[in-house]
Amino acid sequence: LVFTEEDKYGLYSNLLFKYFLAEGIVCGHDLFVASAKEHPDNILKELPAPLLDDAYGKESGDGAAAVKSEDLQDSMKIAWRYQNLPKMEASPTTYTKFGHYYDVSKKMSPELCQSVKCHSFYLHEELSFEPKMKTCNMNSGYARLLQSIQRIISQEGFDGSDPQKKQRNVLRIGIQSLGSILWGDDVCCSDTPEHTHSLTKFLYVLRGLLRKSLSACIITVPAHLIQNKAIMERVTNLSDMVVGLESFIGSERETNPLYKDYHGLVHVHQIPRLNSLICDVSDTKDLAFRLKRKLFTIERLHLPPDLSDTVSRASKQDLAGSAKLLSSGCGAMAIGKKHLDF
Amino acid sequence: QGKFTLLRDTRTDGSFLVHHFLSFYLRAGCKVCFVALLQSFSHYNIVAQKLGVSLTAAKERGQLVFLEGLKSCTDLLFGEEEQPGQPSPLQFLSGSTSDLRALFDFVRVSLTPADGDSWKGPVLLVDDLSVLLSLGAAPVAVLDFIHYCRVSVCCQLKGNVVVLVHSNEDSEDEENELVVNSLCHHSDLILWAEGLATGFCKDVHGQIKIIKRLSLRQAAEQDLVQIYQYKIQDRNVTFFAPGLSAAVL
Fold it and tell me: Where are the transmembrane segments (chain A) (predicted)?
């Protein structure tokens, strides 16, 4: 369960959200998109296009990307997987490909979108149906969403405990702007909301559903609007991974020369520790992101070399910290992966 | 025997202590009732196998009673109507009752020795208690539940209780702090895992404070506090005196 704290204007977290979905399409996973803000079909139309042609070489075979080395220096892998890679070598065949590249300036083609099954949940369309399950003092919007997810999981065969012979697939769930007023939850409005436990109960039940099925989920939440910090603490405990995006728009950091090249910071608050005691730690905790015309990259935050103003700073070493945060694996499949502790 | 141990973590994840106690008591031959609210059975099973204990085998021979909170919750919400004779332990979720009586009954029934049981001493293990607050239980209800468990398990059955809670120093979660402080006062032993005050470090993952609350049983005694630092590895955890980690020596 990947929990993303939105940045103030929601620009970058939306991008992260779309990347998660796009990765799902390219990997052939089924999608489930839920939103109260915009219709899921619109979200699906705006997914970034994968860089299939120039990034992959056909001759390399089963996975290593034969990328031209100068491309490698600039482009970096995107978002939600956290793994430190050493600096890129000249021979890219040793580079293990993990995920896909995306081009932000282009939209994904409709044929590709339709190659997987996309389920959608748009709150305002679903309001007319009565929830059949016990709502348990939970916000009715959340209850409907849970019911919809559970229905998809059991009907489409993602349930881990169901004996089944046909090949299983993974379901990627994306829920946008949970906790905002549009879902009917007043946790963002006041310090003592009426149903204090709606959001946390929702997350708990969602976690239960994710654990027993082959699915992974990303949620974006406007955390800066939530007044009650106690809820944020509880929500952090209930999620596997918590990432916060802080953009520099409108804050005093925009003009700070330290952050000149970046558009915001990435705070990784929590990293999943599933199926293991171990906590594999990374070397750095300071990450920043930037949105170039075509690529959204997350890099280690590093100080540019301290040169005087007259000397150009063209020789910055972009550390190939392809930040990849762990996203899938919340389901019954225990994929071996690195675990990080905080 | 008859001890209440509180596991507490601050700014770090103390679940390694839960895994330790689970495998420790199973190896010792005790009957364990594990109320696992936060993670699935397979997660604990995989870690326990690394520590040398098989949870599935323990469950089969009746040594381990495992309540998987996540599964019970989804069964309660999405399942068919429950049978009248078997109320769900997490019944407070459906809002019909506001106390944790059903959960306590579950614990009591699982740990009461049946005929033919040859296990040494019952043990109740809870991971983790703070989740109950997130699910809508009132702090008083949680404290009542723990109190009933202590009376039943520690005093009547002469067993042990181990509970994990999360806490933060400047936490704004007052309900949680209330529960944690109250439990601290009633514990015989507190194991407090904290992140290092100096920040993140690769070789030392945190420090653990062991507080033996001798003042609980005898009026004139002082609590004994010991501090160690630890590093978690794949199959075990190494403890060492502060400042003497292997990386430094």
Answer: none
Does A274 touch chain B if contact means CB atoms closer than 8 Å?
yes
ipTM summary value: 0.85
Could you tell me which of A195, A225, A114, A213 has the C-alpha nearest to residue A154? A213
Closest by Cα among B180, B177, B249, B188 to B216: B188
- Give the CATH number of domain B3-79+92-190; options: 3.30.930.10, 3.30.43.10, 3.40.50.300, 3.40.190.10: 3.40.50.300
Q: Which residue of A has its CA nearest to B132?
A: A201
Taking the Cβ of residue A269 and every Cβ of chain B, the question of whether any pair is shorter than 8 Å is answered with no
d(CA A181, CA A37): 10
Residues of A in contact with B39 (CB under 8 A): 211, 274
pTM of the model as a whole: 0.75
pLDDT in single tens digits along all 342 residues of chain A = 666 666 555 566 666 667 666 666 666 566 666 665 666 666 666 666 655 443 333 333 222 333 333 333 333 344 333 333 333 323 333 233 445 556 666 666 666 666 667 777 776 666 655 655 555 566 777 777 888 888 877 777 666 555 555 666 777 777 777 776 666 666 666 656 666 677 888 888 888 888 777 777 777 777 666 667 777 778 777 877 777 777 776 666 556 666 666 777 777 776 666 666 665 555 456 666 666 666 666 666 665 554 444 333 332 222 222 222 222 222 222 223 233 333
Contacts of A242 in chain B (CB under 8 A): none
Please give the CATH superfamily to which domain A2-51+99-160+170-300 belongs: P-loop containing nucleotide triphosphate hydrolases (3.40.50.300)
How far is C-alpha B191 from the geometric centre of its chain's CA atoms? Answer: 11
Q: So where are chain A's domains? A: 2-51+99-160+170-300
B77 burial type by CB count under 10 A (0-12 exposed, 13-18 middle, 19+ buried) = buried
| Strand boundaries in A108-224, DSSP class E | 118-122, 171-175, 215-221
Using CB atoms, which residue from A150, A208, A237 is nearest to B130? A237
The answer to whether the Cβ–Cβ distance between A237 and B47 falls below 8 Å is: no
Contact list, B71 vs chain A (CB under 8 Å)? 208, 211-212
